[in-house]
Amino acid sequence: MSGFFTLVGRDLRLAVRQGGALGTALGFYLVVVAMLPLGLGADLKLLSRIAPGVLWIALLLSALLSLGRVFESDYEDGSLDVLATGPLPLELVAAAKALAHWISTSVPLALLAPVLGILLNLELVAYPALVATMLIGTPAVSFLGAIGAALTLTARRGGLLIALLVLPLYVPTLIFGIAAISAMLGPDDVAPPLLILTAISLGAIVLGPLAAAAALRTQMQ
Amino acid sequence: MLLIAENLVLSRGGRTVIDGLSLRLSNGEALLLTGANGTGKTTLLRALAGFLPPAVGEIRIENENDDRELGELCHFVGHLDGIKPHLTAVENLAFWAAYLDGDSSGNGGDRLACALNKFGLAALADVPAGYLSAGQKRRLALSRLAAAHRPLWLLDEPTASLDAASVTLLIDAVNAHRADGGLVIAATHLPLAFENAKEVRLGPKEKAA
Q1: Fewer CB within 10 Å, N side or C side of chain A?
Q2: What's the pLDDT tens digit per position in A70-93?
Q3: The architecture CATH gives domain B29-51+66-201
Q4: What is the ipTM of this complex?
């Protein structure tokens, strides 16, 4: 198992040294959310009503931007071949890379969301709910996204293809993420949507690496 | 340890590249794969490393005290070096050593320095790998061989972009590995001066080694 954490550590270190991927994702998130009030007009009530949904959708799109690089750079420089000869099964290699993506991209995006909430006049009580659902829901974003990243590894201009493959898989996370936020703010019971959101993430953590590893094996032949 | 490949048929993209090849390699032996471009040298190495399942035939390993799979017993140094430009030379090597050995106890400092030294990279240890020349990167990739112990070395054009002195370093490392009982399989265009190495000339008609 220590190989697993060695790999996660290397990916995080590379993410810090390169910096570009995270900066792009955060910048994209900021720009998309900042453009929304400009397009919809300064109707504060409308903005605060749609704010959670907008922040979630923009987060999914921003995370997509960096997904393409999850396996690509290791494939291009030959590291993936060497990783495959290591003691870790390819499933755990995929899991380690998805975990590193979650820590280096999804978590910063989730933490930026409340700051962007200010731009959308998000109600103050909604902030903890927003961050909590995002932190619980985003593992699904990284681990399901790894499937798309592995499938499009050898495709030229795979970025758009990843979006087509992966965005539909994010629909349940989006639905139950929003449902959990509204339940926390309203009279409904918060447990059901939150538990389903957790279940989706846990399922993605198990199934994502299995599917991604199968895709990697066929692409490496 | 005995590496046996029997009646291998390998195909890529629906085209049979290697048809009915058999190999047998035991401790301390080296095998050179030669042949024109496109005769399947890389394909064969990738199959031996476990990336490409053979269409027919089997590759197996006979080993008394070890039941690990072939992929875990081999070093694969391919065309690409597997080096991250943003990490320094020693960081690159430290990662591979810890990862391939599966332990992160961090007591391998001496071994890393020794591996870098073996390929003449000691002075470049703290230089970001992005600034290394092609030949230096190649030597850094080869120093993986010395940093983590694996009995089988699969080398694909190991001398590409190496100068004459570095080729000597590589041959020294290979000789030491073979004296230790290791196996080496190298695909090459240029003559490599491994001592009494077997040779398989890939081409339209493969011959058994």
Answers
A1: N
A2: 898 899 899 999 999 888 899 999
A3: 3-Layer(aba) Sandwich (3.40)
A4: 0.88
